[in-house]
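Deliverable D2.4 — example input (structure tokens):
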């Protein structure tokens, strides 16, 4: 029987009704009491480390969660209950803060509080503990609505439906149907020494381009931030005609890190296809995100910039595949 540590951080799954709307109030022990059947296949211990809405999650909380896992290394697996709104950021962050981990770290939550008469919280929590109890499952995952998604590939697609998350530009790792688990992505077989990181640089800005946006917004951003992820158009288009010339503006900030991503959720970028992308790549210094999920782009830069700000090293680390975060380079 696997020994699992349940780390509770709050979120909808732990929320209760207040006069100001739903707010986390259910404890880790109470969450576990809703899934008594787990005693048949896992020995679960609980620890309450936060009890907040995931809207209030910050990089410092990611470091706290990673440290809890590092300190409690005697367990076979870890389940983290978390709010859905920033779960994709947290799953990406843990993928970078805890690398080559030989045990499962599974995040889950729900769209309805576990105390509701009709809730997805019971199923998701049961599925997460069951998946974390499997042999040969390693690394970070999001388990939600019967799917296990690799931590760097998860994205919240629906704000209310139970099928809130999906895997972006990568297959779902496994499907969970009651006691049956169908795994579609092979796990690595080699055993590595895990590496924990304890620093992040949160000065990464995500900028979504819109028609009419003035390029000098970059001046304001780079006064406070070390890097920007540009959500561009299509396969990687950035405007440069007329007075709103982003090409000219970006040339003034070559000491900063610029990552070219796309607003299109599926299939990734290919900026060399059109002039509106290729011109930017030719300027040098611009890093293309290709098939990476935007949440992973942002958090990976936070991890990298806490290690180095050397442009070549930043680019090298960005294109280093971690937990299957990038395939096309």
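Example output (designed residues):
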């Amino acid at each position: 029987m696997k020994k699992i540590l349940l780390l509770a951080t709050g979120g909808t799954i732990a929320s209760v009704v207040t006069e100001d709307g739903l707010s986390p109030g259910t404890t880790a022990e109470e969450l576990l009491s809703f899934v008594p059947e787990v005693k048949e296949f896992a020995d679960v211990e609980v620890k309450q480390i936060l009890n907040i809405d995931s809207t209030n999650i910050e990089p410092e909380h990611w470091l706290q969660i990673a440290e809890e896992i590092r300190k409690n290394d005697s367990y076979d697996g870890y389940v983290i209950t978390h709010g859905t709104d920033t779960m994709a950021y947290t799953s990406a962050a843990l993928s970078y803060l805890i690398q080559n981990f030989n045990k499962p770290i599974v995040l889950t939550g729900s769209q309805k509080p576990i105390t509701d008469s009709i809730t997805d919280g019971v199923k998701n929590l049961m599925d997460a503990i069951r998946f974390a109890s499997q042999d040969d499952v390693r690394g970070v995952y999001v388990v939600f609505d019967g799917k296990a998604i690799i931590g760097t590939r998860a994205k919240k697609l629906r704000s209310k439906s139970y099928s809130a998350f999906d895997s972006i530009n990568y297959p779902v790792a496994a499907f969970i149907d009651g006691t049956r688990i169908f795994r579609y992505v092979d796990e690595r077989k080699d055993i590595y020494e895990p590496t924990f990181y304890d620093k992040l640089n949160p000065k990464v800005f995500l900028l979504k381009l819109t028609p009419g946006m003035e390029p000098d917004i970059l001046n304001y951003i780079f006064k406070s931030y070390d890097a920007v992820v540009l959500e561009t158009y299509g396969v990687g288009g950035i405007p440069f005609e007329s007075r709103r010339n982003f090409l000219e503006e970006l040339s003034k900030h070559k000491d900063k890190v610029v990552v070219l991503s796309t607003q299109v959720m599926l299939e990734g970028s290919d900026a060399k296809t059109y002039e509106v992308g290729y011109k930017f790549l030719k300027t040098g210094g611009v890093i293309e995100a290709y098939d990476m999920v935007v949440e992973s782009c942002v958090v990976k830069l936070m991890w990298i910039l806490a290690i180095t700000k050397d442009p070549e090293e930043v680019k090298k680390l960005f294109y280093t595949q971690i937990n299957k975060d990038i395939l096309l380079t």
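The mean pLDDT is 95.
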